[in-house]
Amino acid sequence: MKPIVAIVGRPNVGKSTLFNRLLGHRRAIVDDLPGVTRDRNYATITRFDKPFILIDTGGFEPVTEDRLLQQMREQSRLAMEEADVIIFMMDARSGLTPADIEVATMLRRVKKPIFYVVNKVDGEKLENESAEFYSLGIERLHTISAEHNRGIIDLMEELLDVFPEADAGIPDDEITRIAVVGRPNVGKSSLVNRLLGFERMVANPTAGTTRDSVDTLFTCNKKNYLLIDTAGIRRKGKTTEKLEKYSVVDSLRSIERADVVLVVLDAEEGVTEQDERIAGYVHEAGRGCVFVVNKWDTLEKDNSTLGVYVDKVRTGFKYLAYAPIVFVSAKTGQRIGKIMTTVDEVMGQYIHRVTTSDLNRVFSEATDTHHAPLAHGRRVKFYFATQVATRPPSFVIFTNQPDSIHFSYERYLVNRFREAFGFDGVPIRLIFRGRE
Ligand code: GDP
Ligand code: GDP
Questions:
Q1: Whole-prediction pTM
Q2: Which residues contact 430 (CB under 8 A, 6 or more apart)?
Q3: What is the ipTM of this complex?
Q4: Which of 372, 332, 343 lies closest to 187, judged by CA?
Q5: Which of 67, 102, 233, 394 has a CA-to-CA distance to 13 between 20 and 30 Å?
Q6: How far is the CA of 32 from the centre of ligand 2 (A)?
Q7: pLDDT > 70? residue 111
Q8: What's the gap in Å between 283 CA and the centre of ligand 2?
Q9: Annotated binding site for GTP
Q10: What pLDDT, on the 0 to 100 scale, is given for residue 110?
Q11: How, if at all, do strands 382-389 and 394-399 pair?
Q12: Across the strands, what pairs with 216?
């Protein structure tokens, strides 16, 4: 698991400025809209080859004076529970405030590394004035300017130093990375809102000019998921024709980073060419795929509706015959839970490893039952198979004629593996290697 770093502090001390500074992007669009709720932001950041997850705990809602302390407590609680390292941020321009002192007192109980950071130290003069913050009884103070990029590298270096050593055990397998792709208006952002379990803000169309990507970590039934490029999803539906091209590029990038891709279709509109293109890429990239037919509430249904729709999807996406289909409504919430159980099933297969002995038993049965057709007039001989990778399950098969295995025979083997090992919902790769 990547370490989690949380930034806490009063409103306006510069938390989101630091967040975006570390993200290496312009400030996220959502932050530029005045008076709207800002989400707690998560992003994966890599500095000096060390990846970590950064949380900006700021701005749950516009804060009034009497709500301030309550909010600070909530923030600090989140940080204490979720973070491995805490950045407690204060503001040189406003000096040490009672709220800062209160939070510092709360944090004193935490047995985690805490970085006391004074921001907006844009020059020497403020540097000297920031000594008052030592009255908190702390040993080390970092003075930075998030806006002018002062002191950031020093802070980073010390921060990376305190990260717990990456332990060998199951790093990535604890998080399922989910990408949500599909044409504009199929309901991606509505689905994302549902999956995250609360209404999230939809970005204002006029703001859609910067393209920062923000990932969101969430848990469901005690399992961890990372929803890739949440900000992008929320923006995409609102793009103009011109930007639509970029949104395809964004989809491709998200697909590359995902374990399981939700390909969202609009029940009313059926399968379009652009859907086929996007799904084709999911297949080629070898990612787990779940078709999510959204807006199921809009159809007049009878006994055959579902069957007809399944046929439509199967005809439209021949290569993805293995991908499960779920019929949902982001609007009513119908079967949204089914999405997560399906994602779990696909992920389970995606990272599944078969023992070499089981594999070779099934493999030799398959090749004995049904011989490969002659290639160049010669008999095709198979020696053995071995699983070389997961994500997706990939198998190397040793044969005397690696370049001449007929496509239909390859498909036959893939189907045998699917049946035998329960790989019924993921892509499978076969790699043929030569050996005389
Ligand atoms: P947050 O509410 O803690 O997330 O604070 P923001 O990041 O939104 O910043 C609040 C204000 O402080 C914004 O107007 C920023 O431009 C400004 N700010 C942030 N960092 C600095 C800095 O290093 N120096 C100065 N002078 N202003 C800053
Ligand atoms: P995106 O562009 O793919 O992110 O799509 P949005 O989530 O913005 O949704 C596009 C439109 O479809 C909005 O007007 C939504 O209210 C509507 N919508 C989304 N999901 C559903 C659904 O399940 N049923 C119905 N009837 N409308 C939906």
A1: 0.59
A2: 394, 395, 397, 410, 413, 414
A3: 0.54
A4: 332
A5: 233
A6: 24
A7: yes
A8: 25
A9: 9-16, 56-60, 119-122, 182-189, 229-233, 294-297
A10: 82
A11: antiparallel
A12: 227
